[in-house]
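Q: Please design a sequence for this.
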């Protein structure tokens, strides 16, 4: 999905070209078909090739995926999820990122979220 979001659309061969250690062509096509069956992709036929496009915008998909992660792993607790993210990435957060997180928390408090 990441490759298709970055490109806007792609054939199975184009997806394979972008993978660092690609499986076989048949496996890539099968995965694209599964993603289409699940409603994440659609395709248009251009000659003998299928060109795959995302069904929903990346931000919408990101939001939906994050909601599922919150439900599945954190009992819908944003606090637990943020704590886990901070624990995982504490050495990778810059001062600017930490400042932005502080601003977002202040804003959420102000808005009564």
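A: Design:
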């Amino acid at each position: 999905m990441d490759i298709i979001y970055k490109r806007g659309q792609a054939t199975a061969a184009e997806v394979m070209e972008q993978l660092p250690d690609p499986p076989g062509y048949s496996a890539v096509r099968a995965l694209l078909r599964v993603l289409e069956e699940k409603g994440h992709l659609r395709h248009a036929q251009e000659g003998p090739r299928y060109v795959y496009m995302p069904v929903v915008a990346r931000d919408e998909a990101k939001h939906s995926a994050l909601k599922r992660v919150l439900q599945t792993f954190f009992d819908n607790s944003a606090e637990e999820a943020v704590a886990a993210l901070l624990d995982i990435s504490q050495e990778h957060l810059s001062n600017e990122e930490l400042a932005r997180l502080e601003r977002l928390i202040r804003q959420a408090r102000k808005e009564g979220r």
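Q: Thanks. Anything notable?
A: The chain has a mean pLDDT of 93. DSSP finds six helices and two strands in the chain.
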